[in-house]
Amino acid sequence: MLIAMAGLPGSGKSTIGQVLGSRLGLPVISVDPIESAILGAGIDADQPTGLAAYLVAEMHAETTLVAGRSVIVDAVNAVNPAREQWVNLAQRQGEQLRFIEVICSDADLHRERIENRERLLPHQQLTWNAVEQSLEDYSEWTGASATFGRITLDSVEPLGVNIDRAMAFLES
């Protein structure tokens, strides 16, 4: 199975993805560290480093699926072309695809998370303004990605509640 996380930065998707990966014994491939490494290699930020990171994550996820293992991909997946990338991968490999979208319905809490987060990614410091811009660019779910199984979790709920909901969704 291919599990694709989706949601704005700071929404809680990485936390939920990591807990699910740990609980299910699945690798989690995260786009952010890949992009940070690309930037750390000296590639200019004005280059399509985000696209490159998604493509590296896709290749890594595909090799994991080919090896017979399920995988979780942790990425914003804000636009349909990004979501369709996972649809196409699942179809190529004949695997089930599940999207887990994570939102934070409390804007103040979401902002606090962004402003107080400590990341180990030196080339990716995120501001609240950047998250607000991402929200403006976040597309409705349409096309093939809208037809695959998707659950939306709100990270204002306790983590355990969201994990239980995600587990039930993945087992259904």
Question: What is the topological layout?
Answer:
Blueprint: E1 2-6, H1 13-24, E2 28-30, H2 31-40, H3 49-66, E3 71-74, H4 80-93, E4 97-103, H5 107-116, H6 128-137, E5 149-154, H7 159-171
Parallel strand pairs: 1-3, 1-4, 2-3, 4-5
Question: Overview of this structure, please?
Answer:
This protein is an alpha/beta fold and about 170 residues long. It has a single domain (about 1-170), classed as Rossmann fold (3-Layer(aba) Sandwich). Helix content is about 50%, strand content about 15%. It has seven helices and five strands. It has helices spanning about 15-25, 30-40, 50-65, 80-95, 105-115, 130-135, 160-170, and strands spanning about 1-5, 30, 70-75, 95-105, 150-155. It has a five-stranded parallel beta sheet with strand order 2-3-1-4-5, with helices on both faces. It is globular and about 40 Å long. The two termini are about 10 Å apart.
CATH topology: Rossmann fold
What is the CATH top level name?
Alpha Beta
Mean pLDDT equals 90
Largest sheet: 5 strands, parallel
From the alpha-carbon coordinates, what is the Rg to the nearest angstrom?
15 Å
The CATH superfamily bears the name: P-loop containing nucleotide triphosphate hydrolases
End-to-end separation in angstroms reads 12 Å
Please count the helical segments.
Answer: 7
Q: pLDDT below 50 for ≥5 consecutive residues: which ranges?
A: none
Shape: globular
Count of the separate structural domains = 1
By CATH, the architecture is named 3-Layer(aba) Sandwich
Question: In sequence order, what are the helices and strands, one letter per element?
Answer: EHEHHEHEHHEH
Percent range for β-strand residues: 5-15%
> Main sheet: which strands, in order across?
2-3-1-4-5
- Give the total of beta strands: 5
Structural class by secondary-structure content = alpha/beta
Overall helicity: 40-55%
